[in-house]
Amino acid sequence: MSNRPLSKRRTVITGIGWVTPLGHEIETVWKRLLAGESGVRKTTHFDASTFPSQFSSQVKDFDFAALLGDELAKRHETASLNSKFALVAAKNAWQCAEMDGALALDKTRVGVYLGGGEGPLDFESVAAAAIGGWDSNDGGSLNSVKWAEVARERLTHMMELEQDPNLAASHVAVLLGAEGPSFNTLTACAASTQAIGEATSIIRRGDADVMISGGAHSMIHPLGVTGFNRLTALSTRNDSVESASRPFDRTRDGFVLGEGAAIVILEEYEHAKARGAKILAEVAGYGSTADAFRITDIHDQGRGAVAAMRLAIEDAGLQPTDIEYINAHGTSTEENDKIETLAIRSLFGGTKSAPPVSSIKSMMGHLIAAAGATELITCVLALRDGILPPTMNYQTPDPNCDLDYIPNEPRKAAIKTALSNSFGFGGQNDTLVIRKIKG
Amino acid sequence: MTNERRVVITGCGVATPFGIGVESLWDGLISGKSGIRKIEAYDPGGFDSVLGAEVPEFKSRDYIPKNYRKSVKVMARDIELAVACAYEAVKDAALVTKCIVDRDESDGPVTICPTRFGANIGAGLICADIQELAGSLQTSGNHETLEFDFKQWGQEGMTTLTPLWLLKFLPNMLGCHVTIVHDAQAPSNTITCGEASSHLAVGEGFRTIARGAADVCICGGAESKMNPMSVMRQQVMGRIVSGHDDTPEAACKPFSHDSDGMVAGEGGGLLILEELESAKARGARIYCEVVGFGAASKITSWHAPDPSGRAVSLALKNALADAKISPEKVDLLCAMGSGICGFDDSELAGIRTAFGDRKNIPAMAIKGSVGMGGAGCGSIDLASTTMAMHHNTIPSSKNAASSQTDGLLQFAENDPVDARIDVAVSQAYSLSGAQTAAVVLRRYEA
């Protein structure tokens, strides 16, 4: 069933911006991805030196005031780190789209749809209250009265406010004056792909003409790493951190936690044409499904993943054979890479007929809620330049993963369509299809 | 848009301080009960207020199939609320889902195709169970200086947390558990926009069905703020009422000049939205039609609400324009009415702008009796609005003062009022962020 309403409004991408572990500018990061560079280093946000995973893919050299400009940075100075990432990415995407001054924009027709994560919690204050509130009598329990005494002293208004997951979207709305529909979705690792898909639908149905969409997240904080370490989802290759993320390789042992933001400016096609905007690509198709299977496991046949890809391709009015490149979710976990491979094989009718597939998580790490948007921007650049980014750290083939993963070297290919997958914990599957169109 | 598929509400499931199920909510509202009491979930003695709006004791295991009961151990209370609401909503709509079949409550097979059944469930920032987390964190803490030893935590401390710990607190887990239990495989979304979440989720569910990506969507939201961490967060953000520990029923006063805060609460609601022809084909009872959705955003300061209420007015205008209904035709407005003074003023200003010359708009604002449960409170409003239309009755709005709205809103202040309601609007905004949303409901005539 096509998602397309009868009015046939089309949604195109006219601006892109990101803040990633490999840099803050579109072209620099793209060059590094094609050169196979890794953003993974020892974790410095906190002392992780005894954690099972002591490394991550942090954003580096992030000078907020320099990147956003002093005046704007001051207006948003209380923002949490992920909101700051979102602000810089949004400003750059907006500039890329040449929105300022291009025409008298009706700001009530400009909306925001992010897959933004929660702001990092004020860990040391939470820990202090927990320690101070602990009553070790009778085997130990929390005394909520003692806890509250410490908590009320340590927790602050702005730190708590900025933790709410809709704050990044709110900051972006303020920055760009957007007064249209505003949303934040948090469907785990699928969030920003879902955000872009839903924002595409909002433009198609006519509720807005421009949507600022994408994601922002940082879970590189003590409880984030703890949570993923307890799930044994992270790589623990502390001795070779730059090659720890190795999607589809037989020796993969988990994902590498990353952080950052990626924003796309989505615009109704006629609106973009009327103002002479440079059109980077069309968001041609979106598919979204739930596995409805298990909280802890992906459906063993990739049922939801297959359906999401199929729906996205149908929504674009294409056939699987039209897809020329897949930017995989490819997390470097045993289960995801195996089942994503199975799902691609099953939809495309076998290993031979599947298009080339790569995972930039081999270099970026996994930006969780922001991952999908960085990957969609990568697809836009691949389409623009006719070159596909590699899957790095691919050395040992896995019999369960037998697709063409563009191993270790980028590949020239003048593609017109690309598909990007994102799958979230709990069985959230979202797929986008983009297509080159004449500006 | 022509040829758009029409969407109706065929079921409501709620968890509120009045109990589980939409009948307890409606009964509580029309009988003028208050759900606000001293908090029992923990000792609230060290807080500015001891008051809360807790959902009476329930067990989520009673709302799922037997073979799913082991999953309860990875459910935060927010998830348990959602699971209870989902069962109630499905039963209220007389749908047969996998859950109903697995519980041996149906003679026949499922009545909804899983790949045409979606979900959009608003969620909050789910707070860790502080009792559980503190038990782990304190193993790596210096009890004199309250300093935390990261090295100790990395080596040993963290192993005291259960391996699946993180999964209890991911906001999308409300939707994941619900879609697993009921086998809903169509688009599944989780909106996290504070108190506007439920309205945004219902609006998006409405659009998902209209665009043809699903025939049925279970949507709304749920959240619990009834834990020390959540209440403390609201307290440091200056939102909690104080000084009413002995007069809980009078604590929260929506739209009153002497209101000084909200009462934190918990709860949720899930509505069954269904494509009209699909509902008719199975002979479903139709409560009403969803005819309009609007959303907007605006924030002027991180410290105070926008005095002009622009985002509230834009959401209302967008929703009414979407429904092609003029403001004069609105028979009931369900306002958010947090009881927090500046926010109520902002909301009133927005309503005034959207409704132009109208005076004495029949209205309801129920936070005075059900408290503020975050992402779930909007769907309690939407379920209440649906019931008001269904029963042609406007329930009383506890402690809400029409006289202090400058003639704009007319609440039923003591007793419920009989009124034919053909068109109703419910709207909500996020306390922390910029988001607002409104949903327009219309009486459905076969």
Give an overview in words:
The complex is a heterodimer of chains A (439) and B (446). Chain A is an alpha/beta fold. Chain A has helices at 26-34, 64-68, 70-75, 81-96, 123-132, 144-154, 157-161, 167-176, 191-205, 222-230, 269-274, 303-315, 334-348, 361-364, 371-385, and strands at 11-19, 41-42, 55-56, 110-116, 134-135, 141-142, 182-184, 210-218, 259-268, 281-290, 326-327, 357-358, 387-388, 411-412, 417-424, 428-435. In chain A, the strands form four sheets. A ten-stranded mixed sheet of chain A has the order 7-4-8-9-1-10-16-15-11-12, sandwiched between helices. In chain A, strands 2-3 form a two-stranded antiparallel sheet. In chain A, helix 4 (81-96) runs parallel beside helix 8. The longest helix of chain A is centred in the N-terminal third of the chain and has 16 residues, at 81-96. Chain A is globular. With 446 residues, chain B is α/β, with parallel strands linked by helices. Chain B folds into three domains: 7-129 and 165-281, Peroxisomal Thiolase, Chain A, domain 1; 130-160, no CATH class; 293-442, Thiolase/Chalcone synthase (Peroxisomal Thiolase, Chain A, domain 1, 3-Layer(aba) Sandwich), CATH 3.40.47. In chain B, strands 1, 2, 5, 6, 7, 8, 9, 10, 11, 13, 15 and 16 form a twelve-stranded mixed sheet that branches. A two-stranded antiparallel ribbon of chain B has the order 3-4. Chain B is globular and about 65 Å long.
